[in-house]
Specification:
The chain has nine helices and 24 strands. By secondary structure, it is an alpha+beta fold. A ten-stranded mixed β-sheet has the order 5-2-1-11-10-9-21-22-23-24. Strands 14-15-16-17-19-18-20 form a seven-stranded mixed β-sheet. Strand 16, helix 8 and strand 17 form a beta-alpha-beta unit. The protein binds fe (ii) ion. The site of fe (ii) ion has 7 residues, from loops. Fe (ii) ion binds next to loops.
């Protein structure tokens, strides 16, 4: 069986056949569990087995999260939380109580309000006479803001590798937040019979129902590296497809079959479990969100699964892609985004950053083929309306952040990369945005039958707007923003086959303000010197 998609699709790994998995896994699961190497980080202790997290920071509030694993039965538990300006909790500024209840799978989510902007806080929970690990978080700045530094990542497949990249992100104490661009969990039943699977997550089947999704989140969140990333940074996260099912769209998913029940029920279960387990602010079914980093940057986190039209099935059918108004965001979110972009430009905010899931830049292949019908290339009208707004209003300094394709890319974003009148790759003239694609935390890159070097050459030859691409490394990226330029730095870990501390800087690209041209840099951007203390 082919284990991953061949290059040309650039999507996520193929699902395994369920029956193959069941046959293969029964004999080998205990062996895999017994062989797992020890992780370096300390796991959390009861009742806070899944650690702590924070997320969706605003200037005056932030979401705090934990789970209180019940000792027995289904009893509700009371939880106290405290927030302080110092890790010793001598200057407590906020506190309160919450309940861990069965109807939210014993997860606890608090919106801690009344906070000061651009401030680091430490927090902890108490329940059953025990204290949780101490978490660290930070609010957003207001007004004049000279600099912003974010981590961004995606595609953390538990079965396909250790979360070493999460541990490296956790160590970067200077980050304002980490963006998770989706595929935080994978729904698949993974087969332990394959040599490239390093650990098999519970439950040992494809996740379909609420109890399954909850169990899968719980399993991932026992990972010490993932816990540490959450403990040290506020996370701004939104799902891609695998938090639901592969190649999800509003009416179904490639990996949803009729014998798995209704898509509506499965989607509701997946979304519910995600909201229970992630530190996301919940606002009446509007999962897309906006964050403002003073006068330096606006960030939109886009939702590209629940409202999108179905993917075109045949990627050679170039007519199908142009036919009709195939929507990726849905009309309400699209209006919200376009209005937000207009307002951001009118306010004079320096940069517009789009945190989203699938590749945005046009990447036409020879013969009008669409490489990846699941990306924005599959929804050209939606993208054209964004291009139209940027062009009509002369709105520059747009930065798209992307996950999904398990590979690293730096791209200029012209309307049509092959229209040499409208776009000049030598100068970047005609590029309306830049796009930075983060590799998988652990998910494997595409299969490249002719080899990675040839695949890279082919992409660069066919797509003059692609400045850099790397297909095999796993890791994460940083976004460093100031008033003059934006820079993305890519870091790849040395392995995901075992816990390891090794990482290396593999590339950096920057765009100066007012220009859509990307330039390579020799060294990663310097972290600021005044990083706040990590949570102890
Ligand atoms: Fe993925």
């Amino acid at each position: 069986m082919r284990s991953r998609r061949e290059f040309g699709n650039l999507g996520a790994p193929m699902p395994l056949d369920r029956r193959t998995f069941l046959r293969a896994s029964a004999a080998t699961l205990p062996l895999i569990a017994g062989c797992a190497p020890l992780v370096a980080l300390r796991p959390s202790t009861a009742p806070f087995l899944h650690g702590v997290a924070s997320g969706d920071p605003l200037a005056d509030r932030v979401i705090l999260w934990t789970r209180v694993t019940p000792e027995s039965g289904t009893a509700e538990g009371e939880v106290r939380w405290r927030m302080a300006l110092d890790p010793q909790f001598e200057r407590v500024v906020a506190s309160g109580e919450a309940v861990a209840a069965a109807d939210r799978d014993y997860t606890v989510k608090v919106d801690a309000v009344g906070l000061a902007p651009d401030t680091t806080y430490y927090y902890r929970f108490e329940a059953n006479g025990a204290s949780s690990p101490i978490g660290r978080t930070r609010t957003l700045p207001v007004g004049p803001t000279p600099r912003l530094r974010l981590g961004f990542c995606s595609c953390s497949n538990y079965a396909w590798g250790w979360f070493n990249a999460y541990a490296r992100l956790a160590e970067r104490t200077e980050l304002a937040a980490v963006l998770h661009l989706g595929d935080y969990i994978y729904e698949y039943a993974e087969s332990s019979s394959r040599s490239d699977i390093v650990r098999v997550p519970a439950p040992y089947r494809e996740v379909v129902r609420l109890a399954d999704y909850r169990a899968r989140h719980a399993e991932y969140r026992l990972d010490a590296d993932l816990q540490e990333m959450h403990r040290q940074h506020p996370v701004i996260a939104l799902w891609d497809d695998h938090e639901l099912a592969n190649n999800a769209w509003r009416g179904g998913a490639q990996n949803h079959q009729p014998d798995e029940g209704s898509w509506r029920a499965r989607r509701a279960a997946a979304v519910r479990a995600y909201l229970e387990w992630l530190p996301v602010r919940e606002s009446q079914g509007r999962y897309y969100r906006h964050f403002r980093f003073g006068d330096l940057a606006d960030l939109w986190m886009l939702e590209t699964r629940l409202r999108r039209d179905k993917q075109v099935a045949d990627r050679n059918d170039s007519v199908a892609f142009r036919r009709g108004d195939r929507r990726l965001l849905g009309p309400v979110q699209e209006r919200w985004l376009l209005d937000g972009i207009t307002r951001s430009a009118r306010d004079g905010t320096a940069w517009r950053v789009f945190g989203q899931q699938v590749v945005f830049a046009p990447l036409p292949a020879d013969g009008g083929r669409v490489r990846n019908p699941d990306s924005w290339d599959g929804y050209p009208r939606t993208r054209e309306r964004i291009f139209d707004l940027w062009e009509r209003r002369g709105i520059a300094d747009n930065v798209v952040l992307t996950g999904d394709v398990h590979s690293s890319w730096a791209m200029e974003v012209p309307r049509d990369p092959r229209d040499r009148h409208a776009y000049d790759p030598a100068t970047g003239r005609g590029a309306l945005a830049v796009e930075f694609v983060t590799p998988g935390i652990s998910s494997p890159g595409p299969v490249l039958p002719a080899g990675a070097d040839r695949a890279v050459r082919r992409v660069l030859d066919e797509n003059p707007n692609v400045r850099w691409v790397e297909f095999t490394g796993r890791g994460y990226a940083l976004l460093d923003v100031d008033r003059e330029r934006v820079q993305s730095d890519w870091f790849h870990v040395d392995t995901v086959q075992e816990p390891s501390r090794g990482e290396r800087f593999v590339a950096g690209y920057r765009a100066r303000r007012g220009s859509g041209q990307l330039e390579p840099v020799d060294a990663p951007s310097e972290p600021p010197r005044d990083a706040p203390e990590p949570a102890p």
